[in-house]
Amino acid sequence: MTPDQLRRQVAILRVNVHRGRRAPHKPLLLLWILARFAEGREELPYRDVEQAVNALLRDFGPPYRTTADMPFWHLQSDGVWVVDGAATLPLGKGSSMPLVSTLRSRNPIGRLSPEVVDLLREQPRLINELAGLLIAYFPVTYHVPLLQAVRFGAAPILSFQETPSTYATRRPRDPRFRERVLDAYKAQCAVCGFAATLASESVGLEAAHIQWHSEDGPDSTPNGLALCALHHVLFDRGAFTLSVDSARRIEVTAVARERSPHGTLLVDLHGRPIRMPRDSSQGPGDEFVHWHRATVFREPAREDVR
CA-CA distance, 241 to 250, in Å (whole number)? Predict the structure, then answer.
């Protein structure tokens, strides 16, 4: 395996799609594995992986229940990971992998494949390059907290856009997307109305993808929302979504707990319509709202409307 082959393999992981919804289990697991390798840990028992990766899945994974056993086992098919004694582990009835109970009781050791280990020892910079490719499976609002959660080192991480084009298998972002979305929403947050400029430039305001760019969401205005930095993060983390009716009301998750003394940043927004674009045809598209509700939003929504 060459460095280029490894980069490409990581960029095109066989990511499972669960009932049409995102399933970023392998990128989360492999990012955690690389962080441990950078610390000098190469042998990773299943029970250690399960505890750490389940926590990552709760915070950064999809809203449906999911666990670490599937990526621990199925990452082997991508040629970068091996499980010691895999051939001797009994498979579950009618399944292509062992039962969770078997993995817990046997506690097999997983490790990067020998070819990958040799490359990372020869070229330690590859660890950061691979991390840059892995965080590209997530929206930009996830990158810093995700790298902190897996305890990556202080060395700079290459963003997906900075990696050589031969490894960048996904489409580039449209640099005009932000301009179009902010113009449609009169340069103010669609949720709270925040608007500020420094000289002539809008600050603290971002163009959010409703269906994430990393999940094939188009760079079109109906797939965009002008959001302040705070509400962009909350939207991407599933703290709120939009209603499917034409009013596009804000629906806040019932699992959110707000500690703000004023309570207006999230919880009190429940039931309020967003500030729609000046041209209603540029408002949030149905297919993108449905994607966000099914794939990102942390159900159920609150029942009370303030």
Answer: 6
DSSP string, 259-304: --SS-TTTGGGTTPBP---SSGGGSPPHHHHHHHHHHT--SSBPS-
DSSP 143-169: HHHHHHHTT--SSPPPPGGGS-TTT--
Dist. CA 233–CA 222, nearest whole Å: 19
Residue 127: both structure tokens together? 């660890």
What pTM does this model have? Answer: 0.84
Strand partners, 202: 197
250-284 as b/e: b if 16+ CB within 10 A: bbbbeebeeeeeeeebbbebbbbebbbbeeeebbb
d(CA 267, CA 114): 50
Length of the chain equals: 306
Chain mean pLDDT for the chain: 89
What does the pLDDT read at residue 163? 45
Name 236's Cβ contacts closer than 8 Å, sequence gap at least 6. Answer: 139, 141, 142, 208, 212, 296
Q: Closest by alpha carbon to 239, among 230, 248, 247, 99?
A: 230
Q: Characterize the bridge pairing of strands 81-83 and 240-242.
A: unpaired
